[in-house]
Amino acid sequence: MNKKLLTLLLAAGMAVIFVATGLHAGTEVSDTITMDYNQYKKRTKKPPKTKFIEFTHKKHAEEYKISCGDCHHDDKGEPLDLKMGDDVQKCVECHTKLAKPKKKKGEKKKKKDIMVLEHAMHGNCIDCHKEINIKDGDPKGKKGPAPATCKKCHISLKKK
Known about the structure:
Layout: H1 3-24, E1 33-35, E2 53-55, H2 57-63, H3 91-94, H4 117-135, H5 150-153
Antiparallel strand pairs: 1-2
């Protein structure tokens, strides 16, 4: 076999592999996602006080009909046009500050830094849940069907 033909076949084979890999690539999403962001923080000597939050991804997408872009957004806060299986970054990939800044004595309350992972996640979940609860008839948005208070999501590990 001549060298040109062999090189051409090798290049075509590599192209097929890259295209097939690109078509198969994407994010496999579990039905339920455990929000364990402690893995990104320095471990402390104390065990966690609450259970890790279990986010029902499939239920939100299928049963509640929430589109991917309602939660996943670009750097300007605009919804991304995503479909199930598309490659998606985790929150922590962009919201890289892993600890809230300490408030100094006498300092005025600042606007929450959205780059802090905790603020981004709370804002995304709680704002949406409050909106649902308000539509359901609760004027403050905290007592409806969607959990919007600390203890409804952050369940204590202490034995009662």
